[in-house]
Specification:
The structure holds two protein chains of two kinds. Chain A is mainly α. Chain A is built from twelve helices and no strands. Chain B has a domain of 179 residues: Rossmann fold, CATH 3.40.50.300. Chain B is of the alpha/beta class. Chain B is globular. Classes of the chains: A mainly alpha, B alpha/beta. Chains A and B meet through helix 8 and helix 9 of A and helix 2, strand 6 and helix 3 of B. The complex binds adenosine-5'-diphosphate and magnesium ion.
């Protein structure tokens, strides 16, 4: 059976893929469906959902269209989640490969630095970084990656330690290849899969961290974010709970979708690898 | 002057508090165009000697002179450049290549690293190398895992001769191959030696093969040289205990010996 068919036969994976597809679709069509500034005033304040079909999910305290904000928030969540996860995997793979391949003092130093980053709770690290440098989308991405890269670094290092003993690495040395080329061209690509298998968890965690930063007012102020929407709705939690509940549900479904789809891909491809 | 002169080479491994002497005071030399075989039971130190000679690992004591230079003194870029002259072929032709590589990439690396052919010349050089080892040039774009074991070992030999080395270390290079393929690969090696005067350090536990291809043989036992000399003389009439045991354990040998005498 092909991995795709096996994936399609796993209900959780399919559910995850549908959620993820919906999120991506929302992110892509947001500017088409809701052109213009989603933070502009669109109607009366605090309109409840399902009352006015031109504003299906109602409006917030300032009269902004909740549905438009939700769609544009999907863009931010997805962009930050993917960019932060990619940055964390890239930093982690490079550090882990250098440590595992070089060994000795280089390994010692790099792994101490990795320990240090891993000891500090990653959310605190992100919080501190954004507080000092100031909130913008790029800074938020870096802040999240800073706390996330040690995991992929450890995984890459463990993989490199086993790969570097293989004959093909000895062959590369024997033909006179430069050690850096061996590390990054011969070893690193083969050390990537276990880290990539973790990427759905990393993306999901990054989306949550971004939401938490935005909730605390440390997100990019020029963008709509789900975390920011929840924080905004908190002021009127008793009178208009939907303002917090709607972005909250979106967040939960997104994280669930990313996680389930990612796990589905890993499971189905891992089974295939086991069979061949 | 010998091509390769190894003297008093020693390598110890520490494992769980115990010290294993993998190579113990081993000395030998190889002349240009000569095949020296290293034979001995599993664990006798053959692969360790191969890795020491190739500077893949460092010895605890001893000296290696290669092409009249102190080979152990070379470092960094100088060592990498000199590696062109000393190549290697491993036992498992699948493990010896990057699992993502294509045939072309495997052969391109040595040409690029040692500046042997410009980027535009390389495809032609790769085709010539493939033909030299008896493979079709259109094998170049194929992935390493797609071709057969015999083809892979030919690619490994093509990679080894790409830099025009004077010595190739063959660590059990034919042991994993089918008997018929083994014969073809041995013929290819002998042909290369005749035409290009390449010397071989030929490692094998199969005395039948050793007798057929080697000029001289060294029998190893637990890291030490037990016996050495002319390959036929040693194998036909071993003096050491390990030599007698190895000959007794090689069933195909009886036939070869009788044919020769
Ligand atoms: N990396 C290593 N660490 C510890 N012991 C080793 C290592 N490599 C080889 N040895 C030991 O050295 C001895 C010789 O091994 P090797 O050279 O591989 O023998 P052969 O190739 O003749 O089978 C064996 O006892 C082996 O266990
Ligand atoms: Mg061996």
């Amino acid at each position: 059976m092909s991995p795709i068919r096996r994936f399609l036969r796993t209900p959780e994976a399919v559910a995850g893929a549908i959620l993820l597809a919906a999120l991506i679709a929302m992110a892509l069509i947001a500017p088409l469906l809701f052109p213009g500034d989603p933070q502009a005033i669109a109607g009366p304040a605090l309109l409840p959902p399902f009352q006015d079909w031109s504003l299906p999910l109602g409006t917030d305290r300032l009269g902004r269209d909740v549905l438009a904000e939700l769609f544009h928030g999907a863009r931010t969540s997805l962009a930050v989640g993917l960019a932060a996860a990619a940055a964390a995997l890239a930093i982690g793979s490079v550090v882990g490969t250098l440590a595992g391949f070089a060994g000795g003092v280089v390994d010692e130093v790099l792994m101490r630095i990795t320990d240090a980053f891993q000891t500090v709770p990653s959310f605190l690290l992100a919080l501190a970084f954004v507080s000092v440098v100031g909130p913008s989308l790029g800074i938020v991405v870096i802040a999240i990656a800073l706390g996330t890269w040690p995991g992929p670094a450890r995984i890459a290092r463990a993989e490199v330690l086993s790969i570097r003993e293989r004959d093909y690495v000895a062959s590369a040395r024997a033909i006179g290849m430069h050690p850096l080329e061996i590390a990054f061209r011969e070893v690193l690509p083969n050390a990537l899969p276990p880290g990539l298998a973790m990427s759905s968890v990393i993306v999901a965690a990054a989306i949550l961290t971004e939401a938490a930063l935005s909730f605390l007012g440390l997100g990019d102020p020029n963008r709509v974010t789900w975390g920011g929407m929840i924080a905004e709705g908190r002021a009127v939690l008793r009178t208009a709970p939907f303002l917090s509940i709607i972005p909250g549900i979106a967040l939960v479904l997104t994280v669930l979708g990313v996680y389930l789809a990612g796990e589905g891909i890993v499971e189905t491809t891992a089974v295939r690898r086991g069979l061949s | 002057m010998s091509l390769l002169a190894v003297s008093s080479l020693t390598k110890r491994y520490r494992r769980g508090g115990k010290t294993v002497i993998a190579v113990d005071d081993v000395s030998f030399h190889i002349e240009p165009g000569e095949t020296l075989a290293l034979a001995g039971p599993s664990g006798s130190g053959k692969s360790t000697i191969a890795r020491l000679v190739l500077r893949l690992i460092e010895p605890d004591a001893g000296a290696i002179e290669f092409e009249s230079d102190d080979f152990l003194a070379l470092r960094g870029a100088t060592l990498r450049a000199r590696r062109a002259r000393l190549q290697m072929v491993f036992q498992d032709p699948l493990a010896a290549f990057n699992p993502r590589a294509t045939v072309a990439r495997v052969l391109e690396d040595p040409l690029r690293i040692h500046g042997i052919a410009s980027r535009t010349e390389r495809p032609r050089r790769i085709a010539a190398l493939l033909e030299r080892v008896g493979l079709a040039a259109d094998l170049a774009p194929r992935a390493i895992h797609e071709i057969s074991g015999g083809q892979r070992q030919r690619v490994a030999i093509a990679r080894a001769i790409a830099t025009r080395p004077s010595l190739i270390v063959l660590d059990e290079a034919v042991s994993a191959l089918d008997v018929s393929v083994r014969g073809q690969i041995l013929d290819l090696l002998l042909d290369l030696q005749r035409k290009e005067r390449i010397a071989y350090l030929f490692i094998s536990h199969d005395l039948g093969v050793v007798r057929a291809v080697a000029h001289r043989v060294i029998l190893l036992d637990a890291g030490r040289i037990a016996e050495s000399g002319d390959a036929r003389a040693v194998i036909d009439a071993p003096q050491s205990a390990i030599g007698k045991a190895l000959v007794a354990a090689a069933p195909r040998l009886k036939g070869t010996t009788q044919d020769a005498s």
